[in-house]
Design goal:
A hairpin with a 4-residue loop joins strand 1 and strand 2. Strands 1-2 form a two-stranded antiparallel sheet. The protein has 153 residues and is mainly alpha-helical. It is globular.
Length: 153
């Protein structure tokens, strides 16, 4: 998928709808798609992993986000769930519903109290620490490489 279209047609509108838009947040969420799914090439963790969608969100992460974060923030939860397609189950929304996926990705980062960096190297470290985590196989260098590969300046 073209990164500019993903940014302009999915990520930015989704973040605006949940009222968590900032240029840094858009860049971080876009970079997450770039590194996690090669900017939308994969809709499920290859070959048969648990992560779903272009942001590679695991169902356990989504369930934790709902139960331990959004359930205590009903206004924010309502904004996110307004993007949820009622005809699909949670797994299908996390696989196929791009705006919902982008909103969930943003909320994963929103839980973090540390401010989103405004430079690529800082975002790469932030992604590794808070999204990919110590247990993940990703590296900040992979984030930077993927971002540069898909996001043509």
């Amino acid at each position: 998928m073209k990164a500019v279209q993903l940014k302009d047609l999915v990520i930015q509108p989704a973040l605006e709808k949940i009222e968590l838009y900032s240029p840094e947040a858009v860049a971080l969420v876009l970079g997450t798609a770039c590194v996690e799914s090669q900017c939308g090439e994969f809709l499920r963790q290859y070959p048969n992993g648990p992560a779903l969608g272009i942001f590679q969100i695991e169902m356990a992460t989504y369930e934790d986000l709902m139960k331990n974060y959004l359930d205590f923030r009903p206004e924010l939860k309502a904004k996110v769930m307004a993007l949820y397609c009622e005809g699909l189950d949670a797994g299908q929304n996390l696989t196929c519903n791009l705006m919902f996926q982008a909103a969930v990705c943003r909320i994963i980062y929103y839980r973090v109290t540390e401010k989103i960096p405004n430079d690529l190297a800082g975002m790469a470290e932030y992604w590794k620490k808070y999204y990919n985590t110590r247990k993940g196989k990703g590296t900040p260098e992979k984030f930077i490489t993927a971002f540069r590969q898909y996001v043509k300046n």
